[in-house]
Amino acid sequence: xxxxxxxxxxxxxxxxxxxxxxxxxxxxxxxxxxxxxxxxxxxxxxxxxxxxxxxxxxxxxxxxxxxxxxxxxxxxxxxxxxxxxxxxxxxxxxxxxxxxxxxxxxxxxxxxxxxxxxxxxxxxxxxxxxxxxxxxxxxxxxxxxxxxxxxxxxxxxxxxxxxxxxxxxxxxxxxxxxxxxxxxxxxxxxxxxxxxxxxxxxxxxxxxxxxxxxxxxxxxxxxxxxxxxxxxxxxxxxxxxxxxxxxxxxxxxxxxxxxxxxxxxxxxxxxxxxxxxxxxxxxxxxxxxxxxxxxxxxxxxxxxxxxxxxxxxxxxxxxxxxxxxxxxxxxxxxxxxxxxxxxxx
Length: 345
What we know:
By secondary structure, this protein is an alpha/beta fold.
């Protein structure tokens, strides 16, 4: 009998890769959308399903509506909960980020408990739930961040996206601890990059690459470090977490951790002078004056610019068995696709 998995956020940049992998492995996949009449949002998934051994079932649901996922969860063997906003462009942090992340997690996980059939939940969290500011590593006297750490420095007013992720993950562990019918495995990816199955998404990953390739940062970038990971690896990690009975706890995902300038250097190494890449970091003091142009507040600059970070990914490699696509390959595949779609010159 084919296993049934509900995947929230399945039409998004990351979620669509998870749905594709599941369909190709023969799963029955249930995917919610806010408005099922807008077929253009999910038609590409139906085309993928048509060329796979799996089956796709779409249904209408709202993260903020209590009980919205209850009916779809019945009969499911597992749930992969990925639906949560990933945007730095918002008007109201509570309404646009925190409520969907927190209430959505609560509604989906409660549906797992009510289902009577769900045995495992795989939750997409983020490395943002591990740490908020880069300086957190120094403040805690750490040589690296591991799955043991939780973000303590973010708030509704400072790094609200990161705050939404740590609130949602802690809520998930709280709900998990108060029941015994399903297991919880958490995936904590760093900055996700790579080719897309849909360009309907407003993911910050796609926005960053477009801005870099179009020369927005040619005069320089802030001295900020990120972990980077291929979207296909993150999707694969979810499948490994789903199918491995021994998988448990949190899993930080990153192929490597480098600065934004070093990331731009990898693009230039592959494409030469074809694109106007930055060749230096913007002095920190000038960012206090002009950081608002990039959307950086003084507190963010103070606690992130110039501070290195290191992420321990040993658990993802050894316990999940994940083998990472190199960042060079990620960049090449992503840029090639953007060129084909004429998103960049």
